[in-house]
Amino acid sequence: MSRVSMTLARENGRICCASCKMPLAGGSESWKARAILTEVSVARLPGAGLGVEQEVTIRRFSCPSCGALLDSETALPGEPFLEDVVLG
Amino acid sequence: MDPITFSIIRHRLFRVVEEAVITLKHVSGSAITNEGHDLMVSLYRADGSLLMGGVGFLHHLTSASEACKAIIRRFEGDIEEGDIFLLNDPYTAALHTSDVYLVAPIHHDGRLIAWSACFVHVFDIGAMNPGGFAPDATDIFSEGFSSPGTKLVSRGRLRRDVWETLLNMVRGPEMVALDLRSMIACNNVARERMLTLVNKYGTETVDEAFRRLIEQSEQRLRERLRELPDGRWQSRQYLEVKGEVFRVLLTMSKAGDSLTFDFTGSSPQSRFSVNCSKWASLGGLFAPLFPLLCYDIVWNEGVIRPITMIAPEGTIVNCTRPAPVSVATVGAIQSVNNAACSTIGKMLMASEKYAAEATAVWHANHFAIFMFGNNQHGRLAIGILTETFAGSGGARSFADGVDVGGEIPNPISRMANIETIEATFPIRYLFRRRLQDSGGPGFYRGGTGGELAIVPHDAPDGGLHYVVSGKGTKFPQSEGLSGGYPGGVNDYVWVKAPTSGVNADPFAQGLPDMAGEKVPVSWGVFPLMGQDALYVRWNGGGGIGDPLEREPAAVARDVVDRAVSPLAAEQVYGVVLAGDKIDAERTRARRATLRRERMAQEGTR
User: Fold this and answer.
1) Where are the alpha helices (DSSP H) in B230-354?
2) Chain A neighbours among B 466-485 (CB < 8 Å)?
3) Are the beta carbons of B481 and A74 separated by less than 8 Å?
4) Whose CB has fewer CB within 10 Å in chain A, the N or C terminal residue?
């Protein structure tokens, strides 16, 4: 098993959750499409500023097996996912 | 060359830069220089290539190299011993017009052997708005004087005609003169110390050491890159001005021993002055690269060689003349900084060996407020609120970010004492402190930003005005890593005193305590007059990892320290407190609920 990030690993050529080892995607596929996505409105977070854009969210990608939070990104609606590929 | 001689010369170069920085600070009279450390000093080889990157704002190291090369091209055959050249044109090499480069050739026995270069953000540059940042500018022509290269000192003698022409175009010429003299002194000290070095070891030995130093840096960075995994990482930054949203999109690819930073997909250049030129983008991506990948490698030309940048022309990261760029350093350049910091952090996080070096994005948005007006001493005062340099640390892979912990692009940035600012400007601080809930949540929390409020005080004209180039209010930009949330955003609020004329509460402890209409402002020139107040908050660093995994005791400590509110503790971290104590049972239940909610929605593109 090799490291992809603090929360993701690669095993047998597949990206998996580092916590429960559940495979998410092949090495060249987008693992985010296989994760559970929830979005948090930045404007609703405690401490949000007065001027925060109402539509901007924090996308949270979680493991469908154990619920571990795998990654996050800031995005406006309709933006493609940020894709990170670790080739090893 | 024996390794001891090589090592001594290398260390002497560090000391040359260090002493030149001290000179710059001691001669300059501007708080932005000697308090905020908005400065840079570096040494270059005879061909202008970077020899020894110094401290200060690191995105200048490569741009000043280009400045030296531009002077070499422009003044071929007319570069003499004792000359000093001024360059501040963003389309030639500089970042924006108010960051003025003074570059000086260093000759030994009549032969050009090296260059020294430095910059400060001068007191004023003659732009349409005082202080250099010109949110009202529509093109480069309204952003002050802009020189692609001028000989300011000829064979050791100041050219009075050039000097007086420059000072005739700026506000506060006596302060700009002091800024320029500080840079002349800085270059003089650098030259003298370099000549001492050459006189001791000889030109050939020193030049051989220069060559080896660059080779060593290149070799060591390439070795490091080979140890890191190949791959591709992305980052996206949003900038907003007057309702228009701009993106900086970065795809960083690493293959073998080289790195490519590709900004394809970034927004077209803007009519607002948040754009930057290609030299500025190059500097912007190197600012985090130097400390994150080369923390033990000398910052020089050797570090630049393995790096390629793709920045499509006509975009916000490679604008074409005459697009305005005066806000670049806190606009597109800072977004390039942030995006590069994020992608480099992701790459480091993918490595067992280097994960400990990974960091979320630090303080991602300068608020950059320049005040101007007549002060209590009867003089024109122009200057930045140096809290913009106070920053906030991004979370590390082993610890929280440092509260109000500075910034990645400038390892020596800091803010002035309140008393220094109050002695210079006719204002009084109501408060200045850490900003609750501004550090990005995570297993490791991002460092907090801060907040402050000021009111006019002892002002001969009843107050003053300020220029705000306010991005960072709409979108969080201090990105987290591995699930960590981004840090909070900026705010700029004009608190208009009640019509009763009641002054702001002198003991106000936060924006809610301040009476009056609260009007968010973000871009342009605004008054701070009479009984009104200005409230500013600045962003925190990004977090790392899952906030629901953070030790409850750490969250409780944050609440006691007022870094995190009880509301955020419960809503974001799932930690329920009873007073200062953790309610363990309700915390377990709350975290289980939050995890279930996180599993409840399946997303699609």
Assistant:
1) 278-293, 301-304, 332-349
2) 473-477, 479-485
3) no
4) N
Helix/strand/coil (H, E, C) string of B165-198? HHHCCCCCHHHHHHHHHHHHHHHHHHHHHHHHHH
**Alpha carbons within 13 A on the beta-carbon side of B352:** 6
Residue B231 Cα distances to A28, B255, B269, B362, B544, angstroms: 11, 7, 29, 23, 21
Residues 233-262, chain B, touching A (beta carbon < 8 A): 233-236, 238, 240, 245
Say if the Cβ atoms of A80 and B605 lie within 8 Å: yes
**Count of the separate structural domains present in chain B:** 3
Q: Please list, residue by residue across B273-286, b when 16 or more beta carbons sit within 10 angstroms of its beta carbon and e when fewer do.
A: bbbbbbbbbbbbbb
**Cβ-based contacts of B236 with chain A (< 8 Å):** 73-75, 79, 82
- Of the CA atoms within 13 Å of residue B325, those in its CB half-sphere come to 37
The domain boundary, picked from B506, B525, B545, lies at B545
Range of the domain at B161: 3-219
- Verify that B540 and B561 share a domain, yes or no: no
A44-83: pLDDT as tens digits: 999 999 999 999 999 999 999 999 999 999 999 999 999 9
Taking only the tens place, the pLDDT of each residue in B50-109 is 999 988 999 999 999 999 999 999 999 999 999 999 999 999 999 999 999 999 999 999
Model pLDDT, residue B605: 31
Residues in chain B closer than 8 A to A88 (CB atoms): 229-231
Residue B268 lies in a domain: no
Q: Give B519's DSSP letter.
A: E
Residues B531 and B577 in one domain: no
Number of domains in chain A: 1
Residue span of the structural domain in which A51 resides:
2-75
**Listed residue (B88, B107, B83, B91) closest to B99, CA to CA:** B88
Domain-terminating residue out of B186, B204, B219:
B219
User: In this predicted model, what pLDDT tens digit does every residue of B460-505 receive, in sequence order?
Assistant: 999 999 999 987 899 999 999 999 999 999 999 999 988 776 666 7
Residue B336 in domain: no
Establish if A88 belongs to a structural domain: no
Q: Are residues B530 and B559 in the same domain?
A: no
Contacts of B477 in chain A (CB under 8 A): 74
Q: Which residues have C-beta within 8 Å of that of residue B86, sequence separation ≥ 6?
A: B100, B101, B102, B147, B149, B150, B152, B162, B166, B180
